[in-house]
Amino acid sequence: MASPKKKLQGLVAATITPMTEHGEINFSVIGRYVDYLVEEQGVKSIFVNGTTGEGLSLSISERRQVAEEWVTQGRNKLDQVVIHVGALSLKESQELARHAAEIGADGIAVIAPFFLKPGNKDVLINFLKEVAAAAPALPFYYYHIPALTGVKIRAEELLDRIQEKIPTFQGLKFSDTDLLDFGQCVDQNRQRQFALLFGVDE
């Protein structure tokens, strides 16, 4: 079972992807961004290429480059760099997962596929399992954001016995306003020490 160097907890910054005025990624500011988070905000864990980082609007090549830059600039400064590797294509998601492992990321996260949506918990877990298996040494997190994916499978239902299918599963980023669902995730999983990140800042 994968185990992070430190438990993912506290504030985790969902980073933006800095761009130039010509729509190119501005890699030159990521080092300063890391320093700002650590020194000015006291934040030492980040979530890269997620919704705030507009990862799904980037090409696979761009996502790889952004992930590499955050891992490189965060080395010896950040505690955890979690890379979102979700994609509509299973093969692309697996490619990004393998790449995250190769560059030394601390974990990967995946949203539910949102074009041809999984119809039930088992279909969704099978998709997640295939992605997690591409990076078997990395902690794996499910990124639950039904407002954007349209996948309404409750997180609490998904967590039930998920580690039997995905041994590297460490928790979820819960970006939804259903506080009953989130509360049940917390109440019913105390013994398993999952990292349950709440991602609706408002």
Automatic annotation (TrEMBL):
Domain of life where this protein originates: Eukaryota
EC number: 4.1.3.3
GO cellular component: cytoplasm
Catalyses which reaction(s): aceneuramate = aldehydo-N-acetyl-D-mannosamine + pyruvate
Primary location group: cytoplasm
Pfam families, per database record: DHDPS (PF00701)
Pathway where this protein functions: Amino-sugar metabolism; N-acetylneuraminate degradation
GO molecular function term, any single one: N-acetylneuraminate lyase activity
Location(s) in or outside the cell: Cytoplasm
Keyword terms of this UniProt record: Carbohydrate metabolism, Cytoplasm, Lyase, Schiff base
Assembly behavior: Homotetramer.
Similarity comment text for this entry: Belongs to the DapA family. NanA subfamily.
Designated name of the protein: N-acetylneuraminate lyase
Organism: Neovison vison (American mink)
Name of encoding gene: NPL
